[in-house]
Write a structure and sequence with these properties.
globular, about 15% helix, 19 strands, 5-stranded mixed β-sheet, 8 helices, alpha+beta, 12-stranded mixed β-sheet, Fumarylacetoacetate hydrolase, domain 2
Amino acid sequence: MKLAMFSEGGSARMGVVEGGDIVDVTASSPGIPRDLYEWLQRTWRLEQLESAVRSAPRLALSQVRLLAPIACPRKYLGIGANYESHLSRLGHLGLKIPPNQVWFNKQTSCVTGPFDPLVMPRVSSHLDYEGELVVVIGRRCRHVAAKDAPLVVAGFTVGNDASVRDWQMRAFTMTLGKSFDTHGPIGPWLVTPDELGDPHRLAIRTWVNGQLRQDGSTSEMRYSVWEQIEELTKVMTLEPGDLLCTGTPAGTALENQPPTFLTVGDVVRIEIEGIGAIENTVVADKSSTATTTGATR
């Protein structure tokens, strides 16, 4: 099943994607939350949606705007150095393959929709793309063995772990360079595990302006999705709606000499087999220079 968040008629709500349509399941079943994130918190029962699909109205996908499936996760974590093909092309930077999993935070304010703009920072021109399989957690869990990890996954989506490389290198945590606003597009929907099958056998490709830049497979992962969940839950509780970026294959801009970073006007398309594609256009930052909130002291 493909579960999406969409906007139509000024209202955002959850739907089920079937072919070229989106089924507005909340219209026929008032008991279903309008937000996919909230639905994961409450029930995560696919049979509830299957029943609603039979009587719910349909809209053409062309008539709606697709939103990020999970817009406000509590955690957005990414694993670095998980594809040797990527690291092997960064020899000119002196990077070495670490002996363990390396995790960083993407601040959740970076999350944006599958076809929303990707904003070029005012403070850097070193904007890079990273096509990644994103895991969506479905159950609150701790101390999960790898063999049991499939039981806590609600689904999978496509993500761009956009990275501002000079800011990424400012600190070992990498958080600032991974967390610029709009630098976490995900979508176009969440695909449930029963429909996707093995997440480690999927082609993953990235195009920039129609030119193929990344052409890899999730089979290249050094640490499987299940091993990643096992590692994380040794440390922390994962919760419904948490997002895990699982690494990127070779072909990023940083690997070239000199790097071929993105520029304003570039169109980045990332596609993962069995899920779908997201596409984001790089735009200049036109946000206000300062924003204040709260009471004045």
